[in-house]
Protein backbone atom coordinates (compact mmCIF):
# COMPACT_ATOMS: atom_id res chain seq x y z
CA UNK A 1 0.00 0.00 0.00
CA UNK A 2 1.18 3.50 -0.76
CA UNK A 3 2.28 5.86 1.97
CA UNK A 4 2.40 9.67 2.06
CA UNK A 5 5.37 11.52 3.55
CA UNK A 6 5.59 15.06 4.89
CA UNK A 7 9.16 15.65 3.77
CA UNK A 8 12.05 14.30 1.73
CA UNK A 9 14.36 12.86 4.36
CA UNK A 10 15.48 9.58 5.90
CA UNK A 11 15.05 6.52 3.71
CA UNK A 12 13.07 8.43 1.06
CA UNK A 13 15.97 10.81 0.49
CA UNK A 14 18.51 7.99 0.56
CA UNK A 15 16.50 6.01 -1.98
CA UNK A 16 16.10 8.78 -4.56
CA UNK A 17 19.74 9.87 -4.24
CA UNK A 18 20.89 6.30 -4.92
CA UNK A 19 18.98 5.87 -8.19
CA UNK A 20 20.80 6.27 -11.51
CA UNK A 21 17.74 7.46 -13.41
CA UNK A 22 14.47 9.23 -12.72
CA UNK A 23 11.55 10.41 -14.83
CA UNK A 24 9.72 13.73 -15.13
CA UNK A 25 6.12 14.17 -16.30
CA UNK A 26 4.54 17.48 -17.31
CA UNK A 27 1.62 18.69 -19.42
CA UNK A 28 0.18 21.93 -20.76
CA UNK A 29 -3.06 23.35 -19.40
CA UNK A 30 -4.81 22.66 -22.70
CA UNK A 31 -6.61 19.34 -22.33
CA UNK A 32 -5.72 18.51 -25.94
CA UNK A 33 -2.05 19.33 -25.42
CA UNK A 34 0.86 16.90 -25.48
CA UNK A 35 1.80 15.17 -22.21
CA UNK A 36 5.57 14.88 -21.83
CA UNK A 37 7.56 12.15 -20.06
CA UNK A 38 11.35 12.36 -19.92
CA UNK A 39 14.12 10.16 -18.45
CA UNK A 40 16.90 11.99 -16.57
CA UNK A 41 20.36 10.58 -15.99
CA UNK A 42 24.01 11.72 -15.59
CA UNK A 43 25.42 10.94 -12.16
CA UNK A 44 25.46 13.94 -9.84
CA UNK A 45 22.86 15.94 -11.80
CA UNK A 46 20.12 15.59 -9.15
CA UNK A 47 20.17 17.16 -5.69
CA UNK A 48 17.96 17.43 -2.62
CA UNK A 49 18.06 21.11 -1.66
CA UNK A 50 15.99 20.82 1.52
CA UNK A 51 13.19 18.66 2.95
CA UNK A 52 10.65 19.91 0.41
CA UNK A 53 12.83 21.05 -2.50
CA UNK A 54 14.78 19.13 -5.12
CA UNK A 55 16.58 20.25 -8.26
CA UNK A 56 18.14 18.78 -11.36
CA UNK A 57 20.27 20.01 -14.25
CA UNK A 58 18.50 20.53 -17.57
CA UNK A 59 20.93 19.60 -20.32
CA UNK A 60 20.99 20.21 -24.06
CA UNK A 61 18.55 18.20 -26.14
CA UNK A 62 16.38 18.37 -29.23
CA UNK A 63 13.31 19.77 -27.46
CA UNK A 64 12.29 21.67 -24.34
CA UNK A 65 8.84 20.34 -23.46
CA UNK A 66 9.43 20.22 -19.71
CA UNK A 67 10.72 23.79 -19.68
CA UNK A 68 7.73 25.00 -21.71
CA UNK A 69 5.18 23.30 -19.48
CA UNK A 70 6.81 24.59 -16.31
CA UNK A 71 6.87 28.12 -17.69
CA UNK A 72 3.15 27.88 -18.42
CA UNK A 73 1.79 26.17 -15.30
CA UNK A 74 4.58 24.77 -13.09
CA UNK A 75 3.03 21.32 -12.60
CA UNK A 76 5.46 18.41 -12.51
CA UNK A 77 5.80 14.88 -11.16
CA UNK A 78 9.17 13.20 -10.61
CA UNK A 79 9.39 9.42 -10.27
CA UNK A 80 12.13 7.05 -9.14
CA UNK A 81 11.81 3.26 -9.18
CA UNK A 82 14.06 0.52 -7.84
CA UNK A 83 15.62 -1.70 -10.51
CA UNK A 84 17.86 -3.31 -7.88
CA UNK A 85 17.26 -4.21 -4.23
CA UNK A 86 13.86 -4.08 -2.51
CA UNK A 87 10.97 -2.98 -4.77
CA UNK A 88 9.96 0.65 -4.39
CA UNK A 89 8.57 3.59 -6.36
CA UNK A 90 8.72 7.17 -5.11
CA UNK A 91 6.85 10.07 -6.67
CA UNK A 92 7.24 13.75 -5.86
CA UNK A 93 4.30 15.82 -7.12
CA UNK A 94 4.92 19.54 -7.04
CA UNK A 95 5.57 22.84 -8.73
CA UNK A 96 8.70 23.41 -10.76
CA UNK A 97 10.57 26.33 -12.22
CA UNK A 98 13.42 26.44 -14.76
CA UNK A 99 16.16 28.78 -13.55
CA UNK A 100 18.05 29.94 -16.63
CA UNK A 101 21.69 30.98 -17.10
CA UNK A 102 20.98 34.70 -16.74
CA UNK A 103 19.00 34.32 -13.50
CA UNK A 104 20.84 35.67 -10.41
CA UNK A 105 20.10 32.39 -8.62
CA UNK A 106 21.79 30.23 -11.26
CA UNK A 107 25.34 30.30 -9.91
CA UNK A 108 24.31 29.53 -6.34
CA UNK A 109 22.08 26.65 -7.43
CA UNK A 110 24.91 25.06 -9.39
CA UNK A 111 26.81 24.78 -6.13
CA UNK A 112 24.57 21.80 -5.32
CA UNK A 113 26.07 19.83 -8.24
CA UNK A 114 29.84 19.82 -7.61
CA UNK A 115 30.49 16.57 -9.48
CA UNK A 116 29.14 17.76 -12.84
CA UNK A 117 31.06 19.98 -15.25
CA UNK A 118 28.30 22.21 -16.68
CA UNK A 119 30.33 22.91 -19.82
CA UNK A 120 30.32 19.23 -20.83
CA UNK A 121 26.59 18.80 -21.31
CA UNK A 122 25.31 22.07 -22.79
CA UNK A 123 23.60 23.07 -19.56
CA UNK A 124 20.46 25.13 -20.23
CA UNK A 125 18.87 25.57 -16.81
CA UNK A 126 18.51 24.26 -13.27
CA UNK A 127 15.00 22.96 -12.66
CA UNK A 128 13.88 23.51 -9.07
CA UNK A 129 10.87 21.59 -7.76
CA UNK A 130 8.94 22.33 -4.58
CA UNK A 131 7.08 19.24 -3.35
CA UNK A 132 3.34 19.34 -2.70
CA UNK A 133 2.87 15.57 -2.29
CA UNK A 134 5.44 12.84 -1.60
CA UNK A 135 4.35 9.21 -1.93
CA UNK A 136 5.80 5.76 -2.37
CA UNK A 137 4.26 2.56 -3.73
CA UNK A 138 5.32 -1.08 -3.84
CA UNK A 139 6.95 -1.40 -7.25
CA UNK A 140 6.39 -5.16 -7.31
CA UNK A 141 6.04 -5.23 -11.11
CA UNK A 142 9.25 -3.29 -11.82
CA UNK A 143 11.86 -5.72 -13.24
CA UNK A 144 15.39 -6.21 -11.96
CA UNK A 145 17.90 -4.44 -14.19
CA UNK A 146 21.58 -3.80 -13.50
CA UNK A 147 23.41 -0.49 -13.82
CA UNK A 148 26.75 -0.63 -15.63
CA UNK A 149 27.80 2.99 -16.11
CA UNK A 150 26.65 6.33 -17.49
CA UNK A 151 26.71 6.64 -21.24
CA UNK A 152 29.52 9.02 -22.31
CA UNK A 153 27.78 10.05 -25.55
CA UNK A 154 25.97 13.15 -24.30
CA UNK A 155 29.10 14.70 -22.84
CA UNK A 156 31.10 13.82 -25.96
CA UNK A 157 28.48 15.46 -28.18
CA UNK A 158 28.10 18.75 -26.30
CA UNK A 159 31.54 19.25 -24.72
CA UNK A 160 32.79 20.58 -28.04
CA UNK A 161 30.19 23.37 -28.13
CA UNK A 162 30.83 26.90 -26.90
CA UNK A 163 28.07 29.38 -26.02
CA UNK A 164 27.75 30.61 -29.61
CA UNK A 165 27.62 27.20 -31.29
CA UNK A 166 25.30 25.80 -28.64
CA UNK A 167 22.95 28.73 -29.14
CA UNK A 168 23.06 28.14 -32.90
CA UNK A 169 22.21 24.46 -32.34
CA UNK A 170 19.15 25.43 -30.30
CA UNK A 171 18.06 27.99 -32.90
CA UNK A 172 17.97 25.26 -35.56
CA UNK A 173 15.74 22.93 -33.56
CA UNK A 174 12.00 23.19 -34.15
CA UNK A 175 10.89 22.57 -30.58
CA UNK A 176 13.43 24.34 -28.40
CA UNK A 177 12.18 27.95 -28.38
CA UNK A 178 8.60 26.72 -28.85
CA UNK A 179 7.02 23.51 -27.58
CA UNK A 180 5.17 20.95 -29.70
CA UNK A 181 1.94 22.75 -28.77
CA UNK A 182 3.30 26.24 -29.43
CA UNK A 183 4.16 27.27 -25.85
CA UNK A 184 7.27 29.38 -25.11
CA UNK A 185 10.17 27.03 -24.41
CA UNK A 186 13.83 27.84 -23.89
CA UNK A 187 14.41 31.61 -24.11
CA UNK A 188 16.71 32.41 -27.01
CA UNK A 189 19.26 33.74 -27.83
CA UNK A 190 21.04 31.58 -25.27
CA UNK A 191 22.71 33.66 -22.55
CA UNK A 192 26.41 33.04 -21.97
CA UNK A 193 27.33 30.67 -19.19
CA UNK A 194 28.23 32.72 -16.08
CA UNK A 195 32.01 32.83 -15.78
CA UNK A 196 32.10 31.09 -12.41
CA UNK A 197 30.36 28.08 -13.96
CA UNK A 198 33.12 27.57 -16.53
CA UNK A 199 35.45 26.53 -13.72
CA UNK A 200 33.86 23.61 -11.82
CA UNK A 201 36.43 23.80 -9.01
CA UNK A 202 34.92 27.12 -7.96
CA UNK A 203 31.46 25.67 -7.42
CA UNK A 204 30.32 25.83 -3.81
CA UNK A 205 30.18 22.28 -2.35
CA UNK A 206 27.00 20.93 -0.84
CA UNK A 207 26.72 20.08 2.85
CA UNK A 208 26.16 16.46 1.89
CA UNK A 209 27.30 15.11 -1.47
CA UNK A 210 24.63 12.85 -2.98
CA UNK A 211 25.35 9.22 -3.70
CA UNK A 212 26.04 8.06 -7.26
CA UNK A 213 22.89 7.97 -9.33
UniProtKB/TrEMBL annotation:
What highest taxon heads this organism's lineage?
A: Bacteria
Q: Which Pfam families match?
A: PNPOx_N
Biased segments, Basic and acidic residues type:
195-213
Q: Where is this region: Disordered?
A: 181-213
Entry-linked Gene3D superfamilies: Electron Transport, Fmn-binding Protein, Chain A (2.30.110.10)
SUPFAM superfamilies for the chain: FMN-binding split barrel (SSF50475)
Q: Could you tell me which residue ranges the Pyridoxamine 5'-phosphate oxidase N-terminal domain spans?
A: 9-138
What's this protein's name? Pyridoxamine 5'-phosphate oxidase family protein
Organism of derivation: Streptomyces sanglieri
Amino acid sequence: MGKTYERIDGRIRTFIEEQHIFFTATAPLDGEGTVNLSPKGVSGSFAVIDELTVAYLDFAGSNAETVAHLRENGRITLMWCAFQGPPNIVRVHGRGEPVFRDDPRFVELLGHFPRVDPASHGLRAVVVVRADLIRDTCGYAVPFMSYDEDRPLHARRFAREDDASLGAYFEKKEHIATSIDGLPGLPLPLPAMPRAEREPAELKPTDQEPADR
